[in-house]
Predict the 3D structure of the following.
Amino acid sequence: MSSLSCSASDLAPLFSSNTANATAMANYLCARFDTIANKLSDATYAIDNTYLLFSAYLVFAMQLGFAMLCAGSVRAKNTMNIMLTNVLDAAAGGLSYYLFGFAFAFGSPSNGFIGRHFFGLTDYPKPSGDYSFFLYQWAFAIAAAGITSGSIAERTQFVAYLIYSSFLTGFVYPIVSHWFWSSDGWASPNWTDNLLFSSGVIDFAGLGVVHMVGGIAGLWGAFIEGPRVGRFDQLGRSVALRGHSASLVVLGSFLLWFGWYGFNPGSFLTIAKGYGDGGSYYGQWSAIGRTAVTTTLAGCTSALTTLFSKRLLEGLWNVLDVCNGLLAGFAAITSGCSVVEPWAAIICGFVASWVLIGCNKLVEKLKYDDPLEAAQLHGGCGAWGVLFTGLFATTSYVNEVYPGQPGRPYGLFMGGGGKLLAAQVVQILVVLGWVTATMGPLFYLLNKMKLLRVSRDDEMVGMDLTRHGGFAYAYHDEDDQSIKHAYMTGKIEPNIAIPPANHSLPSEDV
């Protein structure tokens, strides 16, 4: 800890006129003081790394939430397939991010576009980052791939998942995270050379970096594949292909809620940091708590808004819609969670709910099919959340989270001018352009090579049976009219013999 230091030459004159004894005493005290300072420094590093590791575990637990949410949102005949893709996202993403992704994202020193060090974690860790930081960033990378898998569920070949997941986590996502999070990134708020609009982009926990990247990639995948068989009838009318388990959807939503407390508050990376001269109850630990509060309020507000809005629009209290509304609020607040007041988070969640409802209405008219509403939720609500930060970021919180540059722009509605909002608009445009330019051609080539979508027969029967050796569990999908009866598992009826009714009539004389 550089603020704690001891000099024997400064301390010796304070003891006595006996120079030899005074010097010996000063050396002894300074040695003890340095030992204490080193222990305090070690304790600070240990606390911060433990906090970051715990946050990484929470974010990784979101993969289980994604798996449960996806499994409940698809039909039972594709349960094993979607569960396998979630495992694949983590496994393939782990290797690709280790070999290439982390270096492209955080390989400093580098240029503003791409990192160029730490391939395979060579020459890592550094004083600027430890293994806990790698693990935390890997958990973010595979979250982006998990979002995409939901958009193209129930009709995508296994090999396509393997290819796109590795490409997304190893190249596409890391480039974006370098732009906005690395100290060398051209749009990073921590860039020391020339901040974009004197501000840089504030994407604190990765709304644009993670959610929009995953959502836009899923948008192109689902668009190129086309809707699932039976999703729209011959007249173009929408046909609901309901997921088979509301219980799994709710379980997945709660797991994602829990994991979001590692996603947003964990993005501070450290916790043992005071603000000002120290000795105060208020420090980075307080900002972490505030971030958890804004995250909670945005999600809760969006869930309730969705509940009552869908009741007014459709006359139903639908738990599935509420779960998606909840996640829309969490996603939307992710960009500005650390720099806005709690009351502003309520506004964020309220608008996010209506953005999700509006996007769902729009894609239905366009005959776009996304089984988990991932593109609408993470892409549409993601764009709103990025803009929200440019409108409601407060000057005090911005300077706390991004210190070192007084007078940094903040939210337009908070009196900070339009520079931050302009930077946020730039983020939306460049993320949209980059993901479109990379993932769009990839899905197009996979489709042309017949590696993207399964055959119509396989899709109708279900990929669990045709690709994975059998169903996840015995089921009878009553709402799914596309399943051929030869492959359906029927209900087991009780073997009770019912005596035939006596319908004999009295004999008549002829």
Remarks:
- The mean pLDDT is 88.
- Residues 19-73 form the longest helix (55 residues).
- The chain is about 60% helix and 0% strand.
